[in-house]
Design goal:
The complex is a heterodimer of chains A (77) and B (135). With 77 residues, chain A is mainly alpha-helical. Chain A has helices at residues 14-20, 25-32, 36-44, 51-61, 65-68; strands spanning 10-12, 69-71. Chain A is elongated. Chain B is built from 7 helices and no strands. In chain B, helix 2 crosses helix 4 and helix 4 crosses helix 5. The chains are: A mainly alpha (77), B mainly alpha (135). Chains A and B meet through helix 3 of A and helix 6 of B.
Chain lengths: 77, 135
């Protein structure tokens, strides 16, 4: 089987959506049942969430997961 | 069951100073020596501490056995003992990474000591030789 070597750089628009909704990091953290530290790490891009958390965030912002998390340079508007 | 486990945990922690006191007392003054000339109160305290020591050890054995058999009890107890407070998945991930690092470093140390345990160095001859060279 040939190995597929793709290096992904994932970005997200959590911070933008949060600011649009006029929410604090703590509000968002409480809404999706994580700590504020996790929201900070997600916004900085230093932590990739689990699929479950990604879906929770997408459901909260009422967007698709692929709109919330995207590969660098492939963002859908 | 949870209440029982909590009671056992609290008893083990609260009774520990009395167990240590009993051990120190028995080390400092052996039983045969002081019991012959001890007052009633001292004898009563000694008996109470001894009974507590027996009970403490019995409960400790029970608790350790339970923590080996029941994963939920082991999880709760060791989590409390190791002060692990994971509030979400990222903290669990960090704890996992830290545990992995701790496990690997401990394993490397164990292998290091295992390897060096096959060597033995007798210093007596060496020291004698050094002294002889001075004389």
């Amino acid at each position: 089987m040939p190995r597929i070597e793709v290096k992904l750089t994932l970005n997200n628009c959590i911070q933008e959506l949060r600011i649009t909704k006029n929410l604090t990091q703590q509000d968002l953290a409480d809404a999706v049942d994580v700590t504020r530290g996790t929201i900070i790490a997600l916004e900085k891009g230093s932590y990739n969430p689990s699929l479950e958390l990604a879906f929770r965030l997408a459901i909260f912002f009422k967007v698709g997961v692929e709109e919330l998390f995207f590969e660098e340079g492939t963002r859908r508007e | 069951m949870n209440k029982l486990i909590r009671f056992i945990q609290n008893y083990l922690i609260i009774a520990l100073p009395f167990v240590i006191a009993c051990m120190i007392w028995s080390t400092v003054s052996p039983e045969e020596q002081f019991l012959a000339e001890a007052s009633t109160l001292t004898t009563m305290i000694w008996n109470a501490l001894s009974i507590n020591l027996m009970g403490w050890f019995a409960i400790l054995v029970l608790f350790l056995t339970l923590s080996v058999i029941a994963p939920s009890i082991r999880e709760k107890t060791l989590r409390r003992l190791a002060n692990l407070k994971e509030r979400d998945e990222r903290e669990q991930y960090i704890t996992g990474q830290a545990s992995r690092a701790a496990y690997i470093s401990t394993l490397s140390l164990t292998l290091f000591f295992l390897f060096f345990s096959i060597f033995s160095l007798k210093s007596k001859r060496l020291i004698n030789r050094i002294f002889q060279s001075f004389n």
